[in-house]
Design brief:
It contains nine helices and 15 strands. It is of the alpha+beta class and 338 residues long. The protein has two domains: 60-196, PknH-like extracellular domain (Protein Transport Mog1p, Chain A, 3-Layer(aba) Sandwich), CATH 3.40.1000; 205-337, 3-Layer(aba) Sandwich (Protein Transport Mog1p, Chain A). A hairpin with a 6-residue loop joins strand 3 and strand 4. The longest helix has 34 residues, at 2-35. The chain starts with a helix and ends with a helix. The relative contact order is 0.08.
Length: 338
């Protein structure tokens, strides 16, 4: 019995030593792996993102859209692609604007300045499906006092960025700091993308329906959904005017048929009344026009043919009536000539 117990003890001791040896080998491997420097550290590129298997690189044709790069500008990261499910991972807080406007994909990539190592540029290329959708996000985010650029129909710059539309693409090129050098690089990137990327040109015929008198330059915008807080109003073009130094907004939306435009105009009027608006008696040369006072401002709603149109945020009934008549006449003139 004593001999048997000794044999069992020796076997347990041997087994314990084997297990301990395996644990030591595993621990040694972990230590060695942790002491190896990350390639991103070796390259001094802390901006390199962690690998994410759910993201895919864009096809080479999209990567090459910015080639040739400006002098001294080199890729800092690999291109990354985001779809509707992952867009919020990249632009958390703004994803809904793009998704509601028809977003289909985003590719982003960072570039560094080989001379000024602290300077980098990130390119965002949003595929919005068509030019109208691209214009919607472009106009919704236009910065105040932005400087328009001549190399694209819709393009402007801020001190450290360029924003533009090229067909179905909405592009943002954003630098880590402002300088004359970086603006030049941004412009080269933008022009190179336009030259290398074939797409259908944008046609926004609705812009011609706004009267030019008193129009604030570059103020025309497109609201894709839920315009003015009313869920039935979508694809609404707006334009800002200044009458006697007072701001007024005009808007219009092409509907499927005249009957649809009439019904939506009546429905939107009821929506405003339900939120405290009051109909006012008015003498306007516009059939079925409604004037509504709400929150100390004045709105006029009407339809002509397939167009729902109107004026909002006027500070006086006279300003509302003046701009509404100009808008009606312009829509009638263009629609009747087409």
């Amino acid at each position: 019995m004593i001999q048997e117990n000794k044999s069992n003890g020796r076997r347990q001791t041997v087994l314990s030593m084997v297990i301990l040896s395996i644990l030591v080998l595993i621990g040694t491997g972990i230590v060695i792996k942790q002491t190896r420097l990350n390639p991103a550290i070796l390259q001094k590129s802390e901006l390199l993102p962690a690998a994410n298997p759910s993201r895919q690189s864009f096809p080479p044709s999209s990567i090459e859209a910015f080639i040739p790069l400006p002098p001294d500008l080199k890729p800092l990261t690999a291109p990354e692609m985001f779809d509707a499910a992952s867009l919020s991972d990249k632009i958390n807080g703004k994803a809904e604007l793009y998704l509601s406007a028809g977003f289909t994909g985003l590719v982003s990539q960072r570039y560094r300045d080989a001379v000024a190592s602290e300077l980098w540029i990130e390119a965002f290329v949003y595929d919005m499906g068509n030019g109208q959708n691209a214009f919607a996000v472009f106009s919704a985010q236009r910065r105040e006092n932005a400087e328009s650029l001549g190399f694209a129909q819709y393009a402007y710059r801020s001190p450290n960025a360029i924003f533009l539309v090229h067909g179905q693409y909405y592009i943002e090129l954003i630098a880590s700091q402002a300088s004359s050098q970086v603006i030049q690089s941004l412009e080269i990137l933008a022009v190179t993308f336009i030259r290398n990327t074939q797409t259908e040109p944008i046609t926004l015929a609705e812009q011609d329906l706004f009267p030019k008198q008193d129009l604030i330059a570059d103020s025309i915008a497109l609201i894709a959904v839920d315009a003015f807080g009313y869920e039935r109003l979508d694809q609404v073009y707006t334009a800002e005017y200044r009458l006697n130094e007072e701001p007024v907004m005009a808007y219009l939306s092409r509907r499927q048929a005249p009957r649809k435009a009439q019904e939506l105009a009546a429905s939107y009027g009821k929506f405003l009344v339900n939120f405290g608006g009051q109909h006012l008696a008015q003498q306007l040369p516009i059939e079925n026009a409604q004037m509504i006072e709400i929150l100390d401002t004045y709105e006029i709603i009407f339809s002509y043919g397939p167009f729902l149109a109107g004026v909002r945020e006027a500070t006086t009934p006279d300003h509302a009536a003046k701009l509404a008549i100009q808008l009606f006449n312009q829509i009638k003139r263009v629609a009747d000539d087409s």
